Amino acid sequence: MIVNPQFFNYRLIIGSLIIALAVLTVYSFTSYQSIRANEQFLESEKHLMENELSQMILRYDDIMESNNLMSSQVKEAKRNAELTLDSLRILRSDLSVISKFKHQLSLLKTRNDHLFKAIDSLKDANMLLQREKLLAYNELKKERSTNNSLKKENRILSNHLKKGALLTANSFEARAYKSFLGRKKETRRATKADRIEVNFTLAENALAEEGDKDLYIQIVNPNNNVMADKGSTTFGDSSLIYSSKKTVNYLGNVMDIAIDIEPNEKEKPLIKGTYFVNVFYKDRKLGATQVTLQ
Predict the structure, then answer these.
(1) Class of the CATH-defined domain 169-293
(2) What is the value of pTM for the model shown?
């Protein structure tokens, strides 16, 4: 049998191509597997770095919540970690990116070591200071405890003296009168009454300061308005609208006080109802009474 040389050459070329294709296929598959494994490794490295950065940020939050030591430095470190994490999440996982961020992560860890050591040192110093402060406070407390009873007794005595020195009054009465030819006649008729007389007694008090005392009488009519309004006076943050003011020279003895209060022309005749009478010394109410007109 005679073999055609040209046909033999074709078979040889085809066989070579098949072998080459098979080798190329095997190489391509192997390369794909290698690239895929490398991508998975890089992706795994990226996730590990993201987790480390997330844990680092959580630790910054814990430190800032537990104390205010070096808060500005901790906030700055947290901001750098957050920026690094945000950048890492949006970039693709390739060798250059992973290498770059591994270097940044290493720098952050080194800075954190120094920062946390400094915070721990400050904590220790602060705890020592707190212990010393507590010891000093306890010593001071022991010293003060020997005087507490005496101071308390002095305060109680002082308060009693202040209360005992206050001006007091009693026997408050109010009556409505009608004046005729210089004489006053008591009346219960609102249309007839042209004045209200207020009577009370300043009590004896040897502890009270002697001298002129300004007494203010306030009469509130049934419409809840101050009758015979003479204006207002101020005592610190308080103000008082009054119907009459009377200055007496108090010498610590019993003193009977009688004050006639005439309504303003626009208030005449008086209206029916109950008139409430209040007596004040400065901003303190000494007492009250009332009168009802028919």
Answers:
(1) mainly beta
(2) 0.49
